[in-house]
Automatic annotation (TrEMBL):
Pfam families: F420_oxidored, P5CR_dimer
One Gene Ontology CC term in the entry: cytoplasm
Gene that produces this protein: proC
Lineage: Bacteria, Pseudomonadati, Pseudomonadota, Gammaproteobacteria, Cellvibrionales
Gene3D superfamilies: NAD(P)-binding Rossmann-like Domain, ProC C-terminal domain-like
GO molecular function, one term: pyrroline-5-carboxylate reductase activity
Keyword Cell inner membrane set for record: no
Main function: Catalyzes the reduction of 1-pyrroline-5-carboxylate (PCA) to L-proline.
KW Ubl conjugation (keyword) present: no
PANTHER family, A to Z: PYRROLINE-5-CARBOXYLATE REDUCTASE (PTHR11645), PYRROLINE-5-CARBOXYLATE REDUCTASE 3 (PTHR11645:SF0)
Superkingdom of the source species: Bacteria
Protein name per the record: Pyrroline-5-carboxylate reductase
Length: 273
């Protein structure tokens, strides 16, 4: 399979994360194009990877095998209207990573015959540790499906979901999820500082603990509850903390937060579709 020419429309946080991961995984930077109205954003990207920086969106998408739409949902309709004529040849795969924007809306803006994959990636793609879910429209060919998978596989794990609606809970889980762990780590560091530890010591211990816990969960055969039990000595310190979390309703808090994220994805589909 030849290496596809990939055009990123929008070169912000998420595009930079995927591009960084792709280049690290060996995708030639000269087969990656990026367009963004902010010259500084393109300069920052070019400083990290020698991709082809394009003056406008149509220059980027012309003749590309894959176009990755990495703009905010709010500008998606305008961006699609701008590039739709260039995609009319029908050979290009469009991958949208926008939260909430439905295939129906994309198909309306780009044309009914356009092959579109909706993808929900996350920012750890930058380190090759991303988690992405994908859903393909009926127009996507087997080769295009392979391209989409190989691009996202290069930056982490991928899951194809069975229905487009599954992308809303995915957005609430892995799309937004890195921010939840950052927030939890911020809270742990602040609590340790409150108890008297220097902030840099608290930060190093927190980050390594998060990494260690994640690796144990990934690399052990046992489930999360069992790993937790092994830390929790009866009558000990962990039990005191876990009981405090449970009685304060941590699980309900997490459930409500993820419900809010999924509801927001559905509302965005209505507002911007
Ligand atoms: N940041 C994240 O963790 C994740 C973001 N997403 C989705 O990725 C998309 C991009 O999000 P971010 O990268 O965080 O936003 P961002 O704001 O960092 O990047 C968007 C980029 O689009 C550019 N842009 C604005 N108007 C444009 C136009 N007309 N043509 C071309 N480029 C234009 C902006 O200058 C900016 O650099 C969003 O739709 C978001 O829902 C999906 C998963 C995770
Ligand atoms: O916050 C957002 O809307 C985007 C989608 C998932 C992560 N960031």
């Amino acid at each position: 399979m030849s290496t596809p020419v990939i055009a990123f429309v929008g070169a912000g946080n998420m595009a930079a994360s995927i591009i960084g991961g792709l280049v690290d995984a060996g995708h030639p930077a000269q087969r990656i194009r990026a367009a963004d109205p902010h010259a500084e954003t393109l300069q920052r990207l070019s400083a990290t990877a020698p991709v082809i920086a394009c003056g406008d969106n149509n220059e980027a998408v012309a003749g590309a095998d894959v176009v990755i739409l990495a703009v905010k949902p709010q500008v998606m309709a305008t961006v699609c209207a701008d590039i739709a004529p260039a995609l009319a040849n029908g050979n290009t795969l469009v991958i949208s990573i926008a939260a909430g924007i439905t295939l129906e809306s994309m198909q309306g803006w780009l044309g009914e015959t356009t092959a579109i994959v909706r993808c929900m990636p996350n920012t750890p793609a930058l380190l090759g540790c991303g988690a992405s879910a994908l859903y393909a429209s009926a127009q996507v060919s087997a080769q295009q499906q392979e391209w989409a998978a190989s691009i996202l596989d290069a930056v982490g794990i991928t899951e194809w979901v069975e229905s487009e609606a599954d992308l809303d809970p995915v957005t609430a889980l892995s799309g937004s999820g890195p921010a939840y762990f950052f927030l939890f780590m911020e809270a742990m560091i602040d609590a340790a500082v409150e108890q008297g530890l220097p902030r840099d010591t608290a930060t190093r211990l927190t980050l390594q603990t998060c990494l260690g816990a994640s690796r144990m969960a990934l690399e052990n055969e046992v489930d999360l509850a069992e790993l937790r039990r092994r830390v929790t000595s009866p009558g000990g310190t962990t039990q005191a903390a876990v009981e405090s979390f449970e009685s304060s309703g941590l699980r309900d808090l997490v459930g409500s937060a993820m419900q809010a994220a999924a509801d927001r994805a559905r509302a965005m589909a209505k507002e911007m579709g």
